[in-house]
Design brief:
By secondary structure, the chain is α/β, with parallel strands linked by helices. It has 2 helices and 11 strands; from the N terminus they run H-E-E-E-E-E-E-E-E-E-E-E-H.
Length: 217
C-alpha cells in the first residue's frame, strides 16, 4: 500500500505540472509574450513571428515597445503565424494596413480572423494551408478575400460599420477554452487513479459527493 501511495503522489504531481503548463500556454495566447516584432523601414512595427505553442485566441495590440520605444503596429509580416497549429481566432487591430505572404500559412485550427477597416493589402497566399477560415472584414477591403486562390477555404463576413466580436468576447473565449481543458485533465486524472486502485482488492473507496461526470467501471 505504501508503494501505491508513492505512485499516487507522483501521479498527482505530474497532473499539477501538466495543468500549470496548460495554464501558461492558454493564457499566453492573447499576450504580448507570444508575439515578436521588428521595425519596418518606414518606422512602424511588423508582427514578425508567433510562438508555435500559442493556443486559442490571439489579440494583436495596436502599439508595442521595441527596445524601449513605442511603435504603432502596421504590418503582419511574411510567415508571421506560419505553423501556429493551435490558434483558433486572430484579432487584428485598426492601423494595420498589410498582411504579407503566407502570414497565416498552415494555421490548421484557425476559424476566425477579424480584419480592421484600415487594411488595404492582403497577399492572396496569406491563408495557404488553413482548413476553413471566416474572415470578418469591411466592405472597403472584402475584395482581398474573394480573389482566385482564396475562395476555396475562405468565407467572408462583411461587417457594416462595426465588428461582430469585441476584444473582451475573444478573451472570454480563451478563458473558456482553458476551463474546459482543465476539467478534461481533471477527469482524466481521476479516472486514472480509480483504474489504478482497482487492482488492489483491499482498497474500497467511495466519493463523499456526486461527481459531475461518470467514472468508467
Amino acid at each position: 500500500m505504501k508503494n501505491k501511495m508513492k505512485k499516487l503522489l507522483c501521479t498527482f504531481m505530474c497532473f499539477v505540472i501538466s495543468v500549470s503548463c496548460l495554464a501558461v500556454s492558454t493564457s499566453a495566447a492573447d499576450a504580448d509574450a507570444v508575439l515578436k516584432y521588428k521595425v519596418s523601414d518606414d518606422g512602424f512595427a511588423v508582427v514578425s513571428d508567433c510562438d508555435a505553442s500559442a493556443t486559442g485566441a490571439v489579440v494583436i495590440p495596436s502599439k508595442v515597445l521595441i527596445n524601449g520605444k513605442s511603435y504603432n503596429v502596421k504590418y503582419i509580416g511574411d510567415r508571421a503565424f506560419d505553423g501556429c497549429y493551435y490558434i483558433t481566432v486572430i484579432k487584428i487591430p485598426e492601423g494595420v494596413t498589410a498582411i504579407r505572404n503566407h502570414a497565416f500559412r498552415d494555421c490548421l485550427s484557425l476559424t476566425d480572423v477579424y480584419i480592421p477597416e484600415s487594411l488595404i493589402v492582403c497577399q492572396y497566399d496569406a491563408f495557404d494551408g488553413c482548413a476553413s477560415v471566416t474572415v470578418h472584414c469591411y466592405r472597403s477591403n472584402y475584395q482581398f478575400f474573394t480573389v482566385f486562390g482564396m475562395s476555396a477555404n475562405i468565407d467572408v463576413d462583411v461587417v457594416d460599420g462595426k465588428e461582430n466580436s469585441s476584444t473582451s468576447d475573444i478573451e472570454n473565449e480563451t478563458s473558456d477554452n482553458f476551463i474546459m481543458n482543465f476539467i478534461q485533465a481533471l477527469k482524466s486524472m481521476i479516472n486514472s487513479i480509480i483504474e489504478y486502485f482497482k487492482s488492489d482488492d483491499d482498497f474500497d473507496f467511495e466519493f463523499p459527493f456526486e461527481l459531475p461526470f461518470e467514472i468508467p467501471v
